[in-house]
Amino acid sequence: MDSDVPGGRHARVSVAAPAVGQVSSELDGFCAAERLPAHVAWRLRVAIDEIVANIVAYGSPGVQSAALDVWFRRVGDMVEITVEDDGPAFDPLARADPDVSLPLESRQPGGLGITLVKSLMDDVRYERTSRNVLTIRKRIDSAPEGEAGTDEDRTEQS
Amino acid sequence: MKIEQSNRDGVTVIAPFGRIDTSTSGAVDEVVKQAVDAGARDLVVDFAGVEYISSAGLRVFLVLAKRMRDLKGRLVLCGLPEPVRQVFRLAGFMPLFRVEPSLDAAVASFAVQP
User: Fold this and answer.
1) Residue A54 forms part of a structural domain
2) Count of A-B CB contacts under 8 Å
3) Which domain covers residue A85, as residue numbers?
4) Other CB atoms within 10 Å distance of the CB of residue A156
5) C-alpha R_g of chain B
6) Looking at the complex, does the CB of residue A112 fall below 8 Å from at least one CB of chain B?
7) Rounded Cα distance, B4 and B11, in Å
8) pTM of the entire structure?
9) In a domain, A153, yes or no
10) Residue of B nearest to A43 (CA)
């Protein structure tokens, strides 16, 4: 269900629990093919995990054989990933971020995923066409302090 | 995913390996729950072998921290690689946990801290 497209990679998967692992595998393939540094790759992996898990959890209720599409592209020194789904219009960026300064007793699990996506990516955009279209961009920059290390050594486990 | 469990000086040590994300967090949750159900009250989670953590994994450790507090147990995290540390920081999790640099330091901390 996946194919290479000019300048990138495309995957179409059913909106169901296995989608998270399937898209994650596609991303692994893309990171390896583009030889992305580890500090870029893990940020993309976390972001994609959050985005696809959200779509699986809240996407396309009652829609038979709903699918989501993911396009992975490298544009200059940026990685751009676009995720499209057929769920009801939902702008995840419009939600308020949870208060991450609260003490343990007041913390609720949940709501952190999109906060992480926004923090880990350089740019996140939502657009409603006939589908939900979420585009994330991450610059392929030099490793932040403490994150030196090469790409390939971390990408094997799954 | 591989999750090792051991006992050091009466401290239960749980060490997951690889990615803690939507696909694997259920397995980590299962192991920590079973350890606490079995009576572990001094607990270390060693992150040295963890590649990264997403919010599905954060949820596991938030729930664990609350449960350990309710049980008056002690929970220490150690060996956080930079990607894990980064996500904990962004989520405001650092103040919620006792964090030690290494497993040795984590185990030793039980002897000196209440």
Assistant:
1) yes
2) 83
3) 2-145
4) 10
5) 13
6) yes
7) 14
8) 0.91
9) no
10) B83
